[in-house]
Structures are given as structure tokens and as C-alpha cells.
Amino acid sequence: MTLMQAGAAVPLPPPEAVVFDFGGVLFNWQPVVLLQQVMPDRARNAEEALALAHTVFQSFMPDGDWAAFDRGTAEWGEVRGRIARRTGLPEVDLDRLMHAIPPHLAPLADTVAWLERLAAAGTRLHFLSNMPAPYAAFLQREHAFLKHFQSGVFSCDVKQIKPNADIFHTAIETFGIEPSRTVFIDDNVHNIRMALELGWRAVRFEQAAQAEADLKARGWL
């Protein structure tokens, strides 16, 4: 990857830090599968589960009910009630869904292994994740490999949320990074687009081998 400067191709300097998303990157996050497991009577196939996921989570857009949970502006009971009133789903079913999420957020072994290789190589590591407070506390309590991160930003702690620009600015200040010297890894295309608009380097995650190969191909590892 190069920058054009005065008509000449100039290689980008090596990155100084790598910033990881959590759900779908470092930890399992498959809402369709989760809903089929927790609400099999309402998600009898993949199509029904996908429609239900859009209804419950509102595609995780920043103004949705679940986004308020991610942002830390609505607590467990409040967001459960808001979704129940909006969708007609029983609160008991939503409570069961919300309780099922922490064990669903299992570490992705290939990404953890990559993270550990990066840490061993001395790479500066941070995280930037949309995460409700109960789940953030659970992950930090349960997973020792998170020690590899020098610092991180959870949406619930800063009352901001991806893909809005403000949480990226908070991350820049918190991590003490230069965006153009930082690689952001996320599975959500909206988050990737915002990072690129703000001058970060970014790679959309599909699986660990693909993301690592993309970084190496660009000379960023």
C-alpha cells in the first residue's frame, strides 16, 4: 500500500498499533445461531432467525434499543422492557436470550492464537468494542489472554458506540495513537468505513487467517 506524494509512490510507514474488535473477531458472535438455540419455536430456520435478529437487535444501529445497552445508557431490565414493548416478545424469553449471551461469546481459537503471536512479537495491542457492561465484565473476568491488550475501550464505559465517530476519537485519545499508524480490525463494514473516513488503516475481518494475510500483503505486519 502506498501514498501518492508529489507524483511519486511513497510506502506507508509500518503501523505502530493494532486495534481489535471483540464480537465476531476475537469472540464468537452469531445472533442467528444464538436465536435458533434460545428461541427454537420462534426461529425454526435460518430465515426466521435472521428476521428475528433484525427485530430484536435492530441491526445494532446506534439509535436502537440494544445499542442503548451497548452504550451503557440503558440497563438490563430497561432494555429488556423496551424490546418487549416494541416487539411483543415476552420479557421472560428476552431475559433467557440475554443470559445466554455470555457463554455464546466463546473465544475464537484462531484469533486468540494470532493475538498471542502479535503480543510475542512486541506488537502494541488495544481493543475497541461495542459491549454492554455485564458482558464486558464477564469477558474481562473469564479470559486471561486479554492481558495482551495494553488498553481498550468498551462502548458501555464511555457512553459512545461504533460506528459513530466520537468513540473513535475517544479511542485515539485513550490509546495515545496516530490513526494513520494504526490498524483497526472489525467484522462490521460500517465500523470499517468510519475508521477509514477518520484516517485509520482498517481491515474487515472474516477469519483470522484472512485478516492476517491481508495485513501481511499490505506490508502492515
TrEMBL record:
Transmembrane segments: none
Database matches in SUPFAM superfamilies: HAD-like
InterPro entries per the UniProt record, alphabetical: HAD-like_sf (IPR036412), HAD-SF_hydro_IA (IPR006439), HAD_sf (IPR023214)
One Pfam short name: Hydrolase
UniProt-recorded name of the protein: HAD family phosphatase
Organism: Aquabacterium olei
